[in-house]
Write a structure and sequence with these properties.
By secondary structure, the protein is an alpha+beta fold. The chain is built from 26 helices and 20 strands.
Amino acid sequence: MELITNDRLKIAIKILRACLFIGLIGCALVTVGILGVLSYAKTQGAPPLAVPLSTLFYAEDGTLIGEERHHGETRYWVSLDDMSEAVIDATVSIEDRNFFDHNGFDYKRIGGAVLADIKAMAKVQGASTITQQYARNLFLEHEKTWNRKLTEALYTIRLEQNYSKEEILEGYLNTIYYGHGVYGIEAAANYYFGKRASELSLAEASMLAGIPKGPTHYSPLVNEEKAKQRQNVVLHSMVENGVISKKTAEQALTEKLIFTGSKVVGREDIAPYFQDVVKKELHSKLKLDQDMIETGGLRVYTTLDPDLQEIAEEKVVNFVKEDSGIQLGFVAMDPKNGEVRALIGGRDYEESPFNRAIQAKRQPGSTFKPILYYAALEKGYTPSTQIRSELTTFSYDDDRSTYTPRNYKNYYANDSITLAQAIALSDNVYAVKTHLFLGDGELVDTAKKVGIKSKLKDVPSLALGTSGVSVLEMVNAYATFDNGGTLHKPIFITRVENYKGEVIYEKNLKPKKVLDEDLAFVTTQLMTGMFDEKLNDYTAVTGTTISDKLTRFYAGKSGSTETDSWMIGYSPQLVAGIWTGYDNNEPLTIVEESQYAKNIWAGFMEEAHQDIAPKPFKPTEGVVGVYVNPDTGLLPTKDCPVSRLTYYKKGTEPTEYCSKNVEDVKKEKPKKKEEKEKKGFFKRMFDWF
């Protein structure tokens, strides 16, 4: 009996020793395994924190004008500094109150959860830390498998090894789901309360902090009663965590919350044609790929002026009949820096996203003439240069072709007219004669100087704008005249930041002096003649129909073809241009349709300048203003007393006096008394100036 006992004792000791040995090996294996996992995690380095984020587009005044959403999801990224303390305290208290003390795993909480689950014989309590949840949100699907759990643990270790607690918490708050397609606290604050995350009150923050546990159950827009109960749990956890008092919690719980259910603070989704251009520039000029543009969480600061955009769109609606098939392209630009302030590419973006302000190439008609006449000024023309205007057939291409330009309604002076008259009256014969005088390539070269990139056909009719160009090109060309001959490339984007707020692009485009500033001013002053009073007896200036609507200094030129109607003009502060017509090149047969461009332009410019003091075009140092007789371009006398202030480059101003013989004076038709007393706005202003 004793022997048996001793044998059993020996066996027991052997088993104990074996177990101890195995235990030590197991413990060692576990230790080695843990060290291996830690080492492996270390070698893998920092996991990327990038997630699909909405790219935001801002106007020049900082208002939000639109966003690029990933699969319809709204995702923004803001720093912890741009979140209210209440948001941070509420989230940490309800999700992981020991967050700042553990290394990614809360073992005490895990043990408690296991006991609770065993007691209930069901999964009743979660133990995931904020780091674990963040790892899951960043890298994993939410299937419940051991493989996913192990991978989650690995990513949790990697996050804790490579990022600070603040970086992890910031990432978590920017990626958790708050329901309704909204990810991150900034998007949630926008969606539920129409606020930024930095503006949330304790009551609002505690309401939002309760949603991620079950967005379909605790969204106040789905079930406000359940959401309120969950808010109470959040506030109670904050009291237990010592971040607020019980009294403060009670006050927050009773606070009346107003839900907006709106996804964006400020203006949203305006100027869709403009935004399309911005997106294309991000790709073509900044070389950003489509994924980065769509999901990179970029903040794109643009040049758009929301007020000017609204004015432009309003004028289109006011002047163009709703049932009209007319389309249009419109651009407004700051001439001093080339920044595009407003853009319309068509009447209905949803119906047609084709951008007629940039993509369409239409014949500019007489709006091309200022470019021609600047080239002529460089070759010795002055505002007083006279050419005979009469029906003329021109031969070209070594006499193998002919061209006969015609004036509007076939009106011709059948006499000599000055350059100043030719541009104001839009005389086509004068323009073609000038173009042929300049010689091959001169007009094309000048057009390229002022930013025209479209291919131009160098034929006699080019003087009348028969080669297609875009509205943006023409507005940019006029801005060059307005800016004293300095060319700016059109600018749509001023700055781009990544989701961290780091600047990855900032405009640094250098302007280029392409024109003589004195002759650019002379060209500008010539274009004011479009809005002046009648210059001679055979026709009126082309701006007659809108001149009575204008109250300040403008320079401009209208243009028309059988299928196109244009108006481009500027003040010292703003340049704008518009094309109207049919996409299918249908002729403009209705008089009202041919006036849309002028009326929209005039209405826009007047309202755009409403709060800006009138400012004349400032003469350059190299020009001189002289009163000349508009019919002759010479100095006035008692025989031809009518005069207009006209600018010349110094040394080219007229020195001869106008003279008319008695027979010419007798042939003149006497003016009506009211016509004699009347002076146009621009003549009065120039007389004063």
